[in-house]
Structure formats: C-alpha cells, structure tokens
Amino acid sequence: MPKPTVGRIVLYRSYGTPNGEYDSEDRAAIITSVETDEKVTLAVFNPSGMFFNACEYSEEPKGGTWRWPTITPVMQGVQPGTNICRSCGLRKEMFQDESICADCLRKARKDPVE
Ligand SMILES: [Zn+2]
Predict the structure, then answer these.
(1) Are residues 54 and 15 in the same domain?
(2) What are the tens digits of pLDDT across the range 28-80?
(3) pLDDT by residue (tens digit) across 64-78?
C-alpha cells in the first residue's frame, strides 16, 4: 500500500451509535501528520462539521480507522459497441471516452463547423 503522507485524502470510518441512530459511514479526511505507516492524524470532514483525531489504518472499514479510497473508473460500464452516438443517434462502436462515433468524428474534421 502507498505510504501515507501529509495532505493525502483518505477515508475515515465513523463510529455508528450503539442503538443505530447513526450508521458507521465513510467520511473524507486529510492526513495532517504521519506517526507511522499505519498511524496518522486526520482532519475528518463530516457533513455537519470537522474533527481532528489520531487513527490507525484498517483495510476493513472499522469505526475509528482510516484507509485509502477505492478508485472508481471514470467511464465504468461503458464499452465499445454499446454507445449511442450523440451526433447521428446510431448505436455504434466507440472509444470509451468519445460521445460521437468515428464516422461523425471524421465528418466533423472534414467539414469544420464555422
Ligand atoms: Zn455518429
């Protein structure tokens, strides 16, 4: 796992309340100091306020611990051949980050819009 350094954004797992009024949830947090590779102090951003705390690393989401966020692919689920072209409206094979098909793209390049 990456070494924690000051300024990195991580997830803090909040404690839920014993009677379930509040669930244990992930919160955004910034590392404010590093004690060891596992123990850091965090500035934790809750929707209703901030607090500062020393926390231990845990790969499993456990109340009072921190871990690295999971990176979600930007265009998750978008595959070539499954997209509808924004220009011609046809279902065509496209690169993951394109919103118009290769034919329309070629045409657009050939006939630049003034
Ligand atoms: Zn098209």
Answers:
(1) yes
(2) 999 999 999 999 999 999 999 999 999 999 999 999 999 999 876 555 555 55
(3) 999 999 876 555 555
Q: What is the pTM of this model?
A: 0.61
13 CB-near residues (< 8 Å, 6+ apart) = 24, 25, 26, 27, 58, 61, 62, 63, 64, 65, 66, 67
How many angstroms is it from 105 CA to the middle of ligand 1? 7
Give me ligand 1 centre to Cα 102, in Å.
7
Cα-to-centroid distance, 81 and ligand 1 (Å): 12
Residue 111 to residue 80: CA distance in whole angstroms: 25
* pLDDT higher at 86 or 27: 27
Domain count, the chain: 2
Residues 61 and 78 both lie in one domain? no
| Pair (33, 79) in one structural domain | no
In the reported structure, the alpha carbon of residue 89 is separated from the centroid of ligand 1 by a whole-number distance in angstroms of 6
CB atoms within 10 A of CB 22: 11
Residue 31 domain boundaries = 9-67
State the distance from the centre of ligand 1 to the C-alpha of 36, rounded, in angstroms: 54
Q: Are residues 63 and 16 in the same domain?
A: yes
